[in-house]
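Both lines are quoted verbatim for reference:

——
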Amino acid sequence: MKLKTIVPLLLLCSIPFISPQVFASEVVGQVDLTKVTLFLKGAELQGSTVVKVPKGESEIWLTHLANTIDNNSINVSLDNKAMILSTSLVNDYIAKKGESDALKQLRSSLKQLEDEREILNIKLTAINEEIALLQGNRIDTIIKPNGSLVDAKKAINFVKDNLVNALTDQLAVKSKLNTLNSQIAQYQSQISQQDGGDNKPQKAIKVKIYTQESTSLPISLSYVTPEAGWTPVYDVRVSNISSPLDLTYKANVYQSSGLNWNNIDFTLSTANPSEGITAPLQKPWNIYLNESNKAFYSPSAKPAMAQYEMLAVKDQRSISSSLTHYVTTDNNGLNLQYTIKLPYTISGYSNDNILTLKERNISAEYRYISVPKLDSNAFLQAQISDWDQLELLPGKATVFYAGNYIGESFITTQGVKDTLNISLGRDKEILITRNQDLNETSKPSFFGNDVSQKFAYTIDVRNTKNVPVDITIYDQLPVIQNKIISLDDAKYVGADYQKDTGLLTWNFNLKGKEVKQLPFSFKINYPKDKADSIIGL
């Protein structure tokens, strides 16, 4: 045998025998989204696909996924025809996706606008050249050497008329260009949002499997993406202060996963996986002696007026109620779940998708509150005693009273004990004024080395309605922080007084057309030589 024949044979014999099944075949499966479970932050996406795989090992690339995936949340399920060997998240898979009809239409419209802009730019260039030519010509260069005064006037009028027309055309073209540029920017923004990264690196999940025979393999996939979630919002509707309160629960859904959710049934969960599921461990509480004689920083106590900031209500800002028939509520002991059996379509980059969950008719008592020292308005509140049965989450509430939009409030149960108060807005039919009583208020009086001064105020409350109302008025007496100053002769008829905060509270029923006066007064005593150091009067 010749040498050149022997060498290839030896090389072939030196290579171990490799079964065709050792090299895993690659199969691509596009996952069809079937269900979305939205958390307060994050969403679990569930989908499925069917792929044909040969006997032996195969690598399946699962595509058409969200832009961001929590690797620990990936769950791949196969039937008993195959066994999963490994699963991994791939960050740079190149997905070739076809453009949607909507995206194609946007690109077509953008192309038309860009062509129109190009034509206008050409026209503007010509107009600018015309203006430069007209402005650069001297009269003596465009009339004959022996021309008359009439010829000169004709030349001047020619330049003037044509320059005016050219400048007018220039202004019109620039205005059209500004409008076109704004429209083009809007289309470019929409295309960028809907594009979702076509032909760019995408996420994929690579699943290595082993099967004993060629088969058509169903695959189920679920994973969590952090780029989605929902926030609770409410509609509060009150007909009048004698009727129950209608509360509509809604969900404001957002997502920026890059994956369009087409005709998907949603489940909204009040869980928030991002908060973690493990209880915290308490560390030892150590107390030290400051031997350096340096004072530790200690934040000063909040002034008494801080509590009024919570009492003074601040105004804030539909889907048919029949949609609530498609929503079922389930409490699994850890969180609430709202299952919506009505297909929705939410694009891959969208906010403010409002879903109606349920409606409740709630018994409520109504009262007015006012802090006339800070605001002379009376604020209407709905008081709900069985709030713990309402399964409320913190969220904005849009308030309607007597069919009219009032503003926005905020519903929260944090810190609520007996009664949940829902703000319903200002009522201009309750008139409140707070004035200093000049007849009772005195100038500083001197008694030896001490100074005494009396302060007196009157709060007038008028109900211009024909019906009685319950109302609570808040004011205050000074809280003394230094022993050299004293508070004496405090009078506050009909009010509850909290000495540690200085809070005065009047609770009463005001009949229709009734006027009530709430007087209160007090004296402050302090050393004469400290008069310039007194702060707060």
Observations:
- The first helix runs from residue 3 to 14.
- The helical segments are 3-14, 101-136, 139-142, 149-195, 306-311.
